[in-house]
Structures are given as structure tokens and as C-alpha cells.
Hints:
The complex is a heterodimer of chains A (about 450) and B (about 325).
Chain A (H helix, E strand, L loop, with lengths): L15 E11 L4 E10 L2 E6 L12 E4 L4 E4 L1 E6 L12 H10 L2 E6 L10 H14 L3 E7 L12 H7 L3 E3 L8 H13 L3 E4 L4 H4 L4 E2 L2 H6 L3 E2 L2 H17 L3 E3 L5 H12 L4 E6 H5 L21 H12 L5 E3 L7 H4 L16 H10 L5 H6 L3 H7 L14 E11 L18 E11 L2 E5 L4
Helix pairs in contact in A: 4-7, 7-8, 8-10
Chain B lengths: L24 H19 L12 E6 L5 H12 L3 E6 L11 H11 L3 E6 L4 H6 L5 E7 L5 H15 L6 E5 L6 H12 L3 E5 L15 E3 L2 H5 L4 E4 L15 H8 L3 H4 L7 E3 L12 H4 L7 H21 L2 H9 L1
Parallel strand pairs in B: 1-2, 1-3, 3-4, 5-6, 5-8, 6-7, 8-9
Helix pairs in contact in B: 1-5, 1-11, 2-11, 5-6, 5-11
Amino acid sequence: MSAAGTGLPAGAAHRRSAYINARLVDPASNLDSPGQLLSEDGLIADAGANLFSDGLPPDCDVIDCGGQVLCPGLIDMKVFVGEPGAEHKETLESASHAAAAGGITTIITMPNTDPVIDDISLVEFLKRRARFGALVNVHPMAAATRGLKGEGMSEIGLMREAGAVAFTDGVHAICNAVLMRRMLSYASRYDSLIVQHLEEPSLAEGGCMNEGEIATRLGLPGIPEAAETIMLERDLRLVALTGARYHADQLSCATSVEIMRQAKRQGLPVTCGVSAAHLALNENDVGNYRTFFKLSPPLRREEDRQALVAGVADGTIDVIVSGHNPQDQESKRLPFAQAATGGVGLETLLSVALGCYHDGHVSLPGLLSRMTVNPANLLGLPGGRLAKGRPADLLLFDPGKSWVVDCKRLRSKCKNSPFEDRHLQGVVLRTVVSGEPVYIRDGV
Amino acid sequence: MTFSRTQQAIRFPHRHLLGIKDLTASDIEQILDLADSYVELNRQADKKQNLLRGRTQINLFFEASTRTQSSFELAGKRLGADVLNMAVSNSSLKKGETLIDTAMTLNALRPDLLVVRHPDSGAVELLAQKVDCAVINGGDGSNEHPTQALLDALTIRRRRGSLKGLLVAICGDILHSRVARSNIYLLNRMGAQVRVVAPPTLLPAHIERLGVEVFHDMRAGLQNVDIVMMLRLQQERMHGAFVPSLREYFHFHGLDYEKLSRAKPDALIMHPGPMNRGVEIDSEVADDIDRSVIREQVEMGVAVRLAVLDLLSRNLPANSIAAAAK
Lengths: 444, 326
């Protein structure tokens, strides 16, 4: 990765790249027009339609974008890695290769590791490991409660200083109401975002898919949508009580979208996310006990999927995540109830999310904002924008080109993609982190 | 031998028997017709056939079973197969963790027929994808128990001639019951009308979409029915509280003469066993020789399993070669 220009002796050459003949899409400024971009020493030096009208600057690499989309690199706010503790499933390095191939320049890691990321030394460990092994930017989310036990608050202030960008219990909800109230209050003092997994555990206990006709036919215990909405509605009242920022990491049903829409209308400082998979799939995909479709929250009805897409379209849903959760064969080739939850998603995030754009529900800047400027703003990250002085974290992609997901060729160590063998539209051509390419598609 | 295999020419179009879901009405008729003829065989002194001579049948039970396992064992032996019972206790096996390994091990033993019971829905199907032999579902989680539904159907058909148009009430713990699901599919396919009667906590979501009429009250649910199928209250699967007490459950949902009086006077009483006497069924009702066909169900169980083993074995590789040579 290139060093910033500050350390260079006077007169030393700058690292410059000129991206010409691009379709510039900057969600932050709602820009979608032809133009060029210049990066210098890892930062965006300039961008615009008339850039280079007086000729290219000297000594720079020229990348002809061929009229394809050049936008900020994606920021994926929900990524499970196996490091530390389950490196056989995924390391920061393998995850970062998958991310780069998926056009993602920043991943936010979840604290559900072994050991749990609930201490400054572990936050620093992750940052250090990422610096040496990862192709993309890595920012950890740390545990909201010590050991993810849901009992005592973790050292939010200290871990924030050490580089944790938000606090969550990941796959567990923060259930204790008084603890949640205090945590919201306390975290606001350190400008730390609390991220909640919406699932009331007693209602979800034993459940392994959406409660309804299909679960009944398969003889599988279901998880009612009320497990999600009860937790969401409770949290919104605690937000009203404390005035603190709050982010619901994944909505899965139409009712939650409506609850969130109302909360935003009332002016509560709340945001929410959805996984790309939940925008494209529904409970029918479980079919005959297909464990690759066992996700958390569970895939729900087609009406719910449509409501989630509508939530993205009207701005109720702020963030789209991959929810990347690598699980090996041994964890998935089991009876459905025993199989692990989750699917890999880094390499399919963009193409799957683009479905909402291709289907005409949302503009391209609108869609991309959910994976660039919105998470950047929520987490206080400098990237996610095509603006002067911002990191040159860039994504060049062909939105129309189609491809077939071949699980064997995924870069993730695990191949549990719910999009196995599907045709998707949208191909990453080049991914750039701090001005340097970390992925270039073969033949480009 | 007076017994002849008249259906020899007809091929049963399934490699495995995983659930009633996969069967057509004519598949079901075919099994029941053949099972009917096996009832006679079972009543003869010499019950031995050599249809499955040289074949190996493994009964792989991940969950305890008395009647299903013993009737499969008996059926296999009567047809001349070598039968091996493998009980895999839940404690010695970290539930299904090695299910695929188990399948691989079994494959190496080269069985021809594999009967599997497993506590997880879908586990038998998963196993069937990994082994080379014919697989029979002996009950998987809350999904299906196809041979139970078939033996229930045989019992009813022998008493009533046909299933068509009968009004059947399935009562009790529908939520956890694979027997209920298999019976709902089968009875609907054969033209019977199905009711389920249970407290709301023991009914799975949207059960009505499986083509049943839902009742919460036994007296209303039993009104005018031809068949009363009681289910065992599966206390071992009740991780939470589904009913306040057994006493209260029996009071409202246990089958006694008073509730039974709402059904047709000649209504049959069925139970897949094992019964919790005094919980879902009154002892006297269960033992009423005029009304209860519970013991007959057990007898039909062997006949149905003979028929299923017979039909699936016709599709086994070597057999089809032998048949072609004739």
C-alpha cells in the first residue's frame, strides 16, 4: 500500500493514476455522469467531467474505464471472519481477497470470534493483522457486552480509541433492557454506535427458519417475525428515552420496515440495514432442507422481500450488507436444524444488490449510497465518496454484464453461497484501495 | 405357496420411500394392495419368503423405537433378508454431526435396504443422497413417518373398504408429529376429509394450508367423524410449556366416551403408539374391542413394511437384471 505523500522528499515522484472515460457515480453528491478522476498518493486529487481537458498530468498511469461505472469502493458493514479462532473458515487475508474481488474496499468485522473482540488488545490485534495481511481496509466492530454475555458493558470508550468503529453483540441480541438503555446513553458520550441484532431469543429458541406454512410442511421449528419486531419496538422506545444513536443491523420482514419508517418520521436517530440475500431470496428457496439458505435472520415471505426492496427504495433502509458468514462443509452438510447459520457474500454483494437497480426500484447512486457514503457516515469513515482529499478507494464495474456464481472459484475459504450457480448481473472490473489496484479482472 | 406376487410386472416408480409427499394416489394404492396380500401371508404358519434372500437390510435408528423397528425387522426376516439393527444413541453420537460419515460407513457395508429413523427433519433425505441403497424413512423429526400413515390407511381401508369421503379427526400434539403430517398428506391424496383438533399451542403455523379444518375443541372436532386418530403427547420434545398440566390436557383433549359420543356410532379409534394412557386417551376407550383398532394397526404395520420392502427391492440393481433375464 502506498505511503501518504507527506514522507516523500521534495521533488520525489508522486504516485498518480488517471481514470479516463468513466461513468462517475458519487452517491454522496448524487452524481451520475461521464467524467474522469485523478488519484495522487492514495487520495482522490480531483474528479469531474472536464478534468484532463488540458491534457493528462505527467507521469501517471492511465486507466481507460471504457464508459463503465467508477464509484467509491464499497463498505461492507457486516462481515464475519474466522480470525481469531476459526482461521480454517476464513482469515482476514482470505476475506480481503474475496472483498477485493467483490469491489469492497472496507470491511467491518463482527466481534463473534474466539476469543471475542471485547478488549483493546484484541481490537489492536485485528488492526495489526489487517495491516500486514489484508488487501482492503479492515475496521472491527467490538463486543458491546463483555464476552458477548449480555451482562456487563464492555470498555466502549477505550476500544473506540483503539479503533473499534461500532459496538454490537453480533449474532446475539442485547436483551437486557436496562443494560441496553445505559449502553445507548453511555455510548453516545463517545460517539459510538450501538448495533443491534434483532431477535428476542425466547421467541426464536430452537427455530431454524421463518415460521409459516413452509416450516410446517418441512416439520421445522420456526422463528416468528415477532421475535424481530418486539426487539425493534423495545429498542426504539429506549432510543426515544436516551436520544442516542442506534442501528438495527438487519431487518427481515415488512412489519419491521414499517416500524422503522414511522420511527424515522418521528425523527428518532435510528438507522437500519438489510442483507443483499434478503433483497433477493425468500423462504421458498429453502426448498428441501437446503442449508445454504439457513440465514439469520431467516429468509421470510416474498411479501417481506418486496417490502425490504421498497424500504431500500424509499430510504427507510440505510445500509446493505453482505452478512458474509463463512461456514465449511462440516457445518453445513447436516440436518437443517443442526446446520450452521449464514452464507458467504462478499463476492456477490454488489451483483445481488444491483438486482434492485436493474428491476427499476432505485437509481444507481441511490443503491450505491447504501454501500458507500451511508455506512461511512454512520461509522465516521473517510471513504465512501468521490471527493477531493478522500481516500482513493475505488470500484470500477460493468453493471450490465452477467456471470454465473461458481462456488469453486470463490476466493473465500468457504463456499457456502446461497447464490450457487445463479446468474447475476454486474461484474467488478477493478478494485482500488488507496490508489493501488487490489483486484483487476482477468482480461481487463 | 398360495401367495403370488401379482404386481410383479408393475414397477414402483421410486427408489426410496422418504415421505408421503412424494407419492401419488396410485403409488399409495399399489402399496396398500400389496400389503393387503401380505396380511394373509402373515396369518399363515409358514411366513417365510425368499424374495430378499441374499439382501442386507440395515435398520439404523438414531431414536428409540419399539414397534417401527421390530416390525421392519420382522418384515425383512420374513422376506429372507439378513437384517442388522444399528441403534445409534444420541449420547454416543453428537447428534447427526457424523451423519455423512455414518452414511459412508454404511455404504461400505453394502446394504440393499436401509431403514432410518432420526430426530431431525430432513435427515433421512440427506442420508439418502449419500448412500447407494434404497432408503426407507422410519420417521424424521417432525417431518414424515410414511409407513405409519400407510399402515393407518390399510387399517381403515380393510375396515371401511375405501378412504374416499371419510371424515377423519387427527387429535392432539400436531405440532411435533410426523405421523400427523404423513397422515394429512395421505388422507387428502386419497380423498378423505381431514380435521385437526388440538389446543392452539400444539398446532404448527398455517396448518390449515395443508388442507385441514382446524378445531380447538374436541367435542366440536369429533362431531360426526368416521375415524378418530389420537396422537401421543410428545413430552420429550416439549422444551417449553405447551399445556399447563397433563390433568388439564386430559380434561379437554383426552379421548373418553363422553367426547367420543360426538363421533359416528361406529367411528374407529386409532393411535400410533406408544400410548400415554390417561393423558391423551382413556384406558377403557383404548381397549374397547368394538371401537379401537390400535392392535390391528400394529399387525398392519408388518404387512405394510413387507410391501414397502418388496416394492423397493424390485428396483434394486441385481434384481432388475435377474428380471430382465427371465
